[in-house]
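Course assignment 3, question 2. Fill in each field.
Student: A.L.
Task: Predict the tertiary structure for the chain below.
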Amino acid sequence: MSPPLIINDHPVPEPVLTAFLATIDAATDRDMVTLAKLHRPALLHGFRPTPAAATGLRARLKSLIAGASSLESDMAALLADCGLQSRLVAVLSTKAIDAGLDDFAAYFGEATFVAALLLDSRPDVRALAHKRTEGWKPGQELPPPSKEAGRKLAETFSPFLEQIAPLLNSGDGAKASREKPAESANQELRKRLQEQETNAARSAKGEREAKEKLVKAQGDIESLTKDRDACKSRLREEARTRASLEEKLVTLEASLATRISEGVAGELDAVLRPWLARVRSLDDAPATDRQDIVETAARALVEQEALDLSWGNRARLKGRLEECNRLLAEVREARIASVRPLPRLGDIETALVEEADAISRKLDLPRIDLDPSPALLARINAAESHDEIADIRRFVVQGTDLCAITKEQAEELHARLFDRESALYDAERIEGHLPRVTPTNPLFRLRAARDRDESILLAIDGHNAMFALADLMGDSFEDGAPGKKARARLTAMAQALAGRLRGVSFRLYFDGEHAHDEAVSESLMVIYSGGTGEQRADGRIVSDLHYYRPKDLFDAIFVVTNDGELGQQVTGAGGSVIQVEEFRVMLKSALNR
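Answer field:
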């Protein structure tokens, strides 16, 4: 048995809990979804944010309330907006509620009105509710609502007649109010009440907008925090790996030096020491007994050769370094170009890099500058699943943001990622089933939709795309900004792509002073938003998505943009976002065809 629901250290009676659940049932489907998005977006997990999800939301919300031991603030706010609290109790003062408590409870029902009081933010109002329930006994049958109490309320609260008349569903109180002699005073009170209601509505709207912005900001913070933590984790792992490799290198160098010293010592004992003894005896002899310069040079070269056995020779080390670098280039090329690269090539590449680095240190040469691009290309070529491709794509995006990968390298890597995932996709299709498409790649969600013969809409945020594709625009920019020539250039690119993607409806959106549409071809429509100000095309894209979705005009909708705010609105409307960098891959494929 679940613990009772507690509000302000008081258990909530069963009739009040039943009234909470009835409030949920009374809300409309649209209101239920809207209030869930505003107060507790987590309730929508697993549902599409449409009225069709209201039944599931009600069941989930009832289950949470039935199993809760306390009522969280966001749940209380949601229940309050659903029922009597926001429509009546919120506009009444504590004194007014106390004065008419008996009549309110009699008209609306004891449990219903007490439930509305418990959802109020004012402690003294909730105290009235707790005091009201002190006399209730378990299983006690509460009196049913009384319409007679409604007429008493209308007489008692005549200044608030227009506020409570729709709730009372009776015109008798209003009639009695109009017949009273103090009509002029009542009218003035009604006017002041209407002004208060207007101000309250504005305040509520501002609060909702602030909550929505807060939810969005919290989502952005959570996403950035996850990315930061992931980067920190990777950096720590790389640091541990580097420390381990450096430790192994030190051990290896120490072992190698020991072995060389032992070998040289043995060689000296067996061969060189007797000879060196004779050389020293010659050095100790008088100058007149010494050999000529030729023999002296020969002896010095023999000594130098012995030292080289221990310390190395620059010419031989340079030759070995060149051989290591040559083999390293060939191994990297093999990992990138081979259809099925050997797994051990990765270990061999690492060993070659370490050897070349060690030789460079001995020769006091600059250490090898590790370019991540070849290693990433090799990883892409060896990837065997969509999940591996998704991990590499995230690494490329983060590396580009951190300037560790240049723009040219990023374009090459994105193109190779697309080619490799296309190969995986086609291989799975050959096996006789529709491939599982990674949800992080909208290009392949689009391709899967085409394979299922679905109706598809591809909308393009023209202004955003022109800036992101400036290198493909040629000299079409005017004073550093896209103008008529740039729009024509992007339209021509979109038309070329539309010619390849049969069955896909293209919509290219631009800002424009006069709203109008131009049909460029059977599958491409150029749309000018009209109006003034910024983000006009964004608004038109979102409004079109909300128009298309309920009518089921398209099975799948994709929007090309790098605008984060527009992307969130697109996702909220049930569409998918394609980054302009991914769209670039599609364009280049179409233009080079």
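Instructor remarks: The longest helix spans residues 183-284. The chain has five domains: 6-208, 226-312, 313-360, 371-441, 450-591.
Grade: pending
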